[in-house]
Specification:
Blueprint: E1 14-17, H1 23-35, H2 44-49, E2 54-58, E3 64-74, E4 77-85, H3 94-108, E5 113-118, H4 121-126, E6 130-132, H5 143-146, E7 157-162
Parallel strand pairs: 4-5
Antiparallel strand pairs: 1-2, 2-3, 3-4, 5-7, 6-7
The structure holds coenzyme A.
The site of coenzyme A has 20 residues, from β4, α3, β5 and α4.
């Protein structure tokens, strides 16, 4: 299990909590993926507001090449948001490690279940997530959705994992 507090890692990357100096890199990474319609775009303000929920993966030069956020939706539910890994670092275990850190963060807060909305179903299933009917979660909890132009035509899949 990966501890979010752990500075250090394997495979040439390190996971750590995000710092204010990381905001520009997180903003660039998330919006690069959003340009490819792989995730929703995010404003810098939105990233700054939720910075305490972000973890980053950094290379040996401390350059951010992966990020993800553990958003608390309710007392018993967290959501994995803004998960992205730079293309040249994909398929090296960075995304899985970030998901591990975000789950650990939810556990640390005593939250028993974590969900995500994604196009990458297989990736999350491999990490032990199960597909869930989106309607099983109260719409008001899907903060992401309220800002999404697709709202009622959502084509992402909801997955959950008990922690
Ligand atoms: C989804 C995403 C975060 C995954 O990041 P990643 O760092 O490539 O993830 P991992 O390396 O941990 O796993 C990816 C795949 O590589 C495989 N893999 C892991 N380590 C590997 C290694 N050392 N060598 C080869 N393959 C490996 C995994 O088995 C996994 O396979 P799967 O996708 O079939 O499950 C990344 O592809 C991404 O940023 N995509 C665009 C944004 C996006 O879709 N975000 C998710 C929205 S919720």
């Amino acid at each position: 299990m990966i501890s979010p507090e752990a500075e250090g890692g394997s495979g040439g990357f390190t996971l750590r909590r995000a710092r204010s100096q990381d905001v520009d890199a997180i903003f660039a990474l998330v919006n690069l993926m959003a340009a490819g319609e792989l995730m929703l775009p995010r404003s810098k303000y939105r990233i700054v507001s939720a910075l305490a929920s972000y973890f980053v993966a950094v290379d040996p030069q401390d350059q951010v090449m992966g990020c993800g956020s553990c958003a608390v939706l309710w007392t018993d539910l967290a959501e994995i948001c803004a998960l992205a890994v730079r293309h040249d670092w994909q398929r090296k275990g960075v995304g899985s490690a970030l998901v591990g850190a975000l789950m650990e963060e939810a556990r640390r807060m005593g939250i028993p279940r974590i969900i995500t909305l994604t196009y990458r179903i297989d990736f999350f299933v491999r990490l032990g997530f199960s597909i869930e009917d989106k309607d099983a979660f109260p719409r008001k909890l899907w903060r992401e959705c309220l800002e999404c132009p697709k709202l009622e035509q959502c084509d992402e899949t909801a997955l959950y994992k008990d922690l």
